[in-house]
C-alpha cells in the first residue's frame, strides 16, 4: 500500500487530474470526422501530447492510437511512483491485475471459438512492460489446458483458479463461471490487503465495496432483461461484497423480470433512485456516473494518499475508455449525440 500520509502523492495526483480532458474538449473531438483528426487534436490540445509527439497522426490507425493511450495512462501512473518510491503491494499492482484478467478472458473466449492465434494480433504491449503475465508466450497456446499449465508454470495468481475448469472440449468452456472465479479471487486478495481497523483504510474498502456492488447491479439488470437466471444460479455469479444493498436485500433484484420491475426495486434504495432508463441512460452509464462522482469527491477531499491514488487511477481509466469509445463511434460513422450518450 501507499503511505497514507504522503502529501506529495496527494498534490501530484490532484495536479495531474487537473490536466484531464474537459467536457468542452470532448465536444470539440465529437466534431472530428476521422481517427486522424482525433489523433491530431489529442496531440495538439491534451495531456496525451507527450506520448503522441513522436508519431505522425496521418499514418496512425485506430489500434495503434488506442495502445498509445493505454501506454500514456501507465506512464502517468509511473509519475506518482516517483513520489512514493515503492511499487510492490500498491493499488496499482491490483489495477494491473484487472487488465490482466480482461486479457485472460479475451484469450479464453478465443480458445472457445477455436481461434487462439488471434490473441497475438492485439498483444497488449503496455502490459508486457508492467504486468506479471508473459502474454507473448500465449502465441504457443492452443488449448485451455495449455493456458492453465502456462499460468501455473509462471506462478501467476490465475493458474490454480482456472484449473478446475479444464475440459476435453474447449467449445464447452463455462465462460461465466470462469470470469466469476477470476474476479472472486481478485477481490478476495484486494480485501485481504485492506484488513485494518483504521478509518482511512475503511474509506478505501468502502470505495471498493461500492464498485463491486455497482458491478453486481449491472449483472442483475442484464439478468432481469435477458438472462432470466434463477436466484440460486445468480448466487454463483454475484460477488459477495456490498455497501448500500446488503446480501439479504438482493433477493428482489434476483427475482425481477423486465426493466420496469428492476427499476422499481432500485428506486427503493435512495442512493440509486436517480436511474432513469426512460431517458435512454444505460445501466453501465448510470453506475459509472455514480462511481466516478464518488471518486472525484475523494480525489479532492481525502487526506489518505492511498485512496487518492486509487481514485485517480479509476478516473484516468474512465477517461481513456471515453476516448476509445469516441474513436469507435467516429470510426463507425455514429452521430455525435449517439457517441455522447455512450
Give your account of this protein's structure.
The chain is an all-alpha fold and 342 residues long. It folds into three domains: 1-86 and 306-342, Orthogonal Bundle (Topoisomerase I, Chain A, domain 4); 102-184, no CATH class; 197-302. The chain is built from 17 helices and no strands. It has helices spanning 7-17, 23-30, 35-45, 49-52, 62-84, 91-112, 125-130, 144-153, 159-162, 175-193, 199-227, 231-235, 251-255, 259-266, 283-301, 305-331, 336-341. α11 (199-227) packs antiparallel against α15 (283-301). The protein is globular and about 55 Å long. The relative contact order is 0.12. The mean pLDDT is 86.
Write a concise keyword list for the protein shown above.
17 helices; 342 residues; 63% helix; mainly alpha
In short:
With 342 residues, this protein is an all-alpha fold. The chain has 17 helices and no strands.
The CATH architecture of the largest domain is Orthogonal Bundle
State mean pLDDT (0 to 100 scale). 86
* CATH homologous superfamily caption of the largest domain: ATP synthase (C/AC39) subunit, domain 3
- Using the CA coordinates, give the radius of gyration: 21 Å
- Please count the helical segments: 17
- Overall structural domain count: 3
Helix content: 55-70%
- Overall SS class: mainly alpha
Amino acid at each position: 500500500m501507499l503511505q497514507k500520509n504522503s502529501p506529495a502523492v496527494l498534490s501530484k495526483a490532484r495536479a495531474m487530474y487537473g490536466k484531464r480532458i474537459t467536457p468542452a474538449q470532448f465536444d470539440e473531438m465529437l466534431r472530428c470526422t476521422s481517427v486522424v483528426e482525433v489523433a491530431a487534436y489529442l496531440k495538439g490540445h491534451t495531456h496525451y501530447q507527450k506520448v503522441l509527439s513522436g508519431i505522425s497522426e496521418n499514418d496512425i490507425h485506430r489500434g495503434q492510437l488506442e495502445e498509445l493511450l493505454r501506454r500514456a495512462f501507465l506512464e502517468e501512473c509511473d509519475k506518482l511512483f516517483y513520489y512514493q518510491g515503492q511499487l510492490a503491494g500498491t493499488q496499482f499492482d491490483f489495477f494491473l491485475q484487472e487488465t490482466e484478467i480482461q486479457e485472460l478472458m479475451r484469450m479464453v473466449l478465443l480458445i472457445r471459438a477455436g481461434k487462439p492465434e488471434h490473441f497475438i494480433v492485439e498483444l497488449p504491449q503496455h502490459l508486457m512492460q508492467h504486468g506479471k503475465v508473459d502474454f507473448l508466450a500465449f502465441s504457443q497456446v492452443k488449448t485451455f489446458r495449455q493456458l492453465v499449465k502456462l499460468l501455473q508454470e509462471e506462478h501467476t495468481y490465475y493458474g490454480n483458479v482456472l484449473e478446475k475448469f479444464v475440459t476435453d472440449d474447449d467449445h464447452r468452456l463455462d465462460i461465466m463461471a470462469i470470469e466469476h472465479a477470476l474476479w472472486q479471487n481478485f477481490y478476495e486478495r484486494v480485501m485481504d490487503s485492506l484488513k485494518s481497523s483504521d478509518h482511512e483504510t475503511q474509506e478505501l474498502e468502502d470505495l471498493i465495496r461500492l464498485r463491486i456492488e455497482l458491478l453486481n447491479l449491472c449483472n442483475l439488470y442484464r439478468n432481469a432483461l435477458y438472462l432470466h437466471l434463477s436466484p440460486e444460479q445468480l448466487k454463483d455469479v454475484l460477488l459477495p461484497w456490498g455497501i448500500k444493498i446488503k446480501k439479504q436485500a438482493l433477493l428482489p433484484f434476483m427475482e425481477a423480470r423486465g426493466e420496469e420491475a428492476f427499476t422499481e426495486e432500485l428506486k427503493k434504495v435512495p442512493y440509486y433512485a436517480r436511474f432513469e432508463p426512460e431517458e435512454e441512460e444505460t445501466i453501465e452509464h448510470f453506475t459509472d456516473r455514480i462511481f466516478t462522482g464518488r471518486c472525484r469527491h475523494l480525489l479532492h477531499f481525502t487526506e489518505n494518499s492511498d485512496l487518492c491514488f486509487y481514485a485517480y487511477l479509476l478516473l484516468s481509466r474512465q477517461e481513456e475508455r471515453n476516448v476509445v469509445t469516441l474513436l469507435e463511434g467516429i470510426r463507425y460513422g455514429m452521430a455525435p449525440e449517439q457517441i455522447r450518450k455512450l
